[in-house]
């Protein structure tokens, strides 16, 4: 490589590197948009939800996918839906999971519990029948709001927090939301096989048209007694993102309740990997888009850019499950609070009713954004940086191929070889 070409390469690289802190800094952060919030009476009862958690824990312990209690609990949910007058049915699916090895890791299984053959791949992988239970309440519009919670467990007896609390809250929302006429069609879903990789939600997303889904709301671990705020599950993944309005509306409602924002991403919550060499906003974007995932059943909807939000009971001074009780026999109703259930249940109820009051603009429907606290980096900054990267790639290609470009025939042959990787990057 001659000196001129080397200098050209270094110049392009320098421009890209220098641009990172220029684009990804707090100067460009904007306040999250605010929306109309439903101010009427909220009827969610934490007392009723708590009684359902007690019933689930006593009658359907150890609800692992494919188990007897996974099926009996599904039948009970179906009965409850029908009692509410919902158009109700079950959907079965088959899933493979590493449930056996997960139980081995948490101490519920021992190597001696496996079939003859030891710890082979064949013995570790389990094929199970999963059951999603669906209850529909028709609205004036065919556009649909999904309210879901998984009912399966892993390594627990009661599974009170994870996730009888979400299941009971979903049932209570079905009771209060369907007592009166409503604009959107409501679809209440009890998902199976969340604990083995969101398999129930993924099966649902694959088998249903999602074109008319206005929102998918997921309730997961919403009863923690020491909670002082509502946590938001990840709303960006490597494959997609929920539109901006879903997070902004949640922040408006949570803030109006006097709580602070709490995100289960690389800042807090479950924690996440940090590279440590980029500005915080850039590092966050890389973390979300390169290794980002969603820890609950909103994941398959986020992956498809469907509006979605996931709620969890959180303590603003702690990581989620700092006691380490999830997926253990210690996940009992003693850690669940009626007050927490009611607080988060009313946030969910208010959120759903607020959706009907707002007409979200195309700018609020963007999936190109980064959130930090109550502010966000909007799509224009991210788009400008992306265009700069594309320009940098083209410039590097031009510099590397300049000698060939001068010869027409050689250039055309070269272009045929080079275009595929250029297009794949752009």
Structure characterization notes:
It is a single chain. With 426 residues, the chain is of the alpha/beta class. Helix content is 43%, strand content 15%. It is built from 13 helices and ten strands. It has helices spanning 3-23, 46-59, 68-83, 99-105, 121-124, 160-177, 199-207, 244-256, 280-291, 299-303, 338-355, 379-405, 408-425, and strands at 30-31, 87-97, 126-137, 144-150, 185-191, 213-219, 229-232, 308-314, 370-372, 375-377. A seven-stranded mixed β-sheet has the order 2-3-5-4-6-8-7, sandwiched between helices. The protein has a three-stranded antiparallel β-sheet with strand order 1-10-9. Helix 2 packs across helix 6. It is elongated.
Question: Keywords, please?
Answer:
single chain; 426 residues; alpha/beta; seven-stranded mixed β-sheet; three-stranded antiparallel β-sheet; 13 helices; 43% helix; 15% strand; elongated
Low-confidence segments, given as residue ranges, are none
The strands making up the biggest β-sheet line up spatially as 2-3-5-4-6-8-7
Strand content: 5-15%
The count of β-strands is 10
Largest sheet: 7 strands, mixed
What Rg is obtained from the alpha carbons, in whole angstroms? 25 Å
SSE order, as H and E?
Answer: HEHHEHHEEHEHEEHHHEHEEHH
**Helical element count?**
13
Overall structural class, as computed from helix and strand content, comes to alpha/beta
Principal-axes shape call: elongated
How far is the N terminus from the C terminus? 26 Å
